[in-house]
Design a protein that fits this description.
Blueprint (H helix, E strand, L loop, with lengths): L2 H161 L19 H6 L11 H39 L6 H8 L8 H10 L2 E4 L2 E4 L2
Antiparallel strand pairs: 1-2
Helix pairs in contact: 1-3
Length: 284
């Protein structure tokens, strides 16, 4: 077999293969067209079925939606009624509470006013007691200061009168108003009226005696205050319900109850007694 025949056979095979490919592509096209047609038909049937099913269940869906809306409206109405009832109950309870509070306030108002009046009266009494105690203390300080000043003036006057008995006129010639004597003798036997003038030693001695007497008097007063403080403690121990200062003064036979203020204050400061309002008690 020659080349020409081989080429002819090859050309026939190629032509046959091309025809087969064309036929295969045509078959694919036809199959695809049939498939698309089937898909379109199936889609149309499905859509028709869905529309028919929707048309069938639409009344049921509408009825269910209407029932749901009605149930929601009923629940909302029920909750609104419940809230209105709660608000009404709260308002009623609030009114009752306010009325009860007003009644209770009106009932205890006189007691509160009386207690406030008692408190103010007790405060005013205590203020008056403290003012009087301070005034008495200042008066005592003033008297003590005036007494001390008077004693010093008297002492200085006596010393000055003794010093005036000797007169020195100068370094060359000195003339004494009285007979010249030594200072010791002049002090012991001063010129002038011996009955009116007192020697410095006697003045100092008298001042010392007066100071000792003042100390003794202060010690005596302190002793009296201590004894009086003990009597006050004994009295308060016998009256555990408490006593006012005026009552303590009456029971002890003291006319001016204000004289007890410094003693009561000292007992309070020492913690031996305590005060509640206007009443005094023994400390526990």
């Amino acid at each position: 077999m020659g080349n020409a025949e081989a080429l002819r056979n090859l050309a026939e095979e190629m032509a046959s293969a091309y025809e087969e490919r064309v036929n295969s592509i045509l078959a694919i096209k036809q199959g695809t067209a049939h498939m698309l047609a089937d898909f379109g038909k199936a889609h149309k049937e499905m859509a028709d079925n869905l529309r028919a099913e929707l048309a069938r269940v639409k009344p049921e869906l509408q009825a269910a939606e209407s029932d749901r809306k009605a149930a929601d409206q009923a629940e909302i109405k029920e909750r609104e009624d419940h809230i209105e009832k709660l608000l009404a109950d709260f308002g009623k309870a609030h009114k009752e509470m306010a009325d009860n509070l007003r009644a209770e306030l009106a009932r205890v108002k006189p007691e509160l006013q009386a207690a406030e009046s008692d408190r103010k009266a007790a405060d005013q009494a205590e203020i008056r007691e403290r003012k009087w105690a301070i005034s008495s203390m200042l008066d005592d300080f003033k008297k003590e200061h005036e007494g001390a000043a008077a004693a010093w003036r008297e002492l200085l006057a006596g010393m000055k009168s003794v010093g005036e008995k000797v007169t020195i006129t100068g370094p060359v010639k000195a003339e004494a108003a009285v007979e010249m004597k030594p200072v010791e003798e002049a002090i012991v036997e001063p010129a002038g009226n011996a009955e009116e003038e007192e020697p410095e030693e006697e003045i100092a001695e008298k001042a010392g005696i007066e100071e000792e007497e003042a100390v003794e008097e202060g010690a005596a007063e302190e002793k009296i205050e201590e004894d009086l403080g003990g009597r006050i403690l004994d009295l308060l121990e016998d009256h555990t319900e408490g006593l006012k200062m005026t009552q303590v003064a009456d029971m002890l036979g003291i006319e001016n109850w204000r004289t007890l203020i410094p003693i009561m204050r000292e007992l309070l400061d020492d913690g031996e007694i305590r005060k509640e309002g206007t009443l005094y008690f023994v400390s526990e």
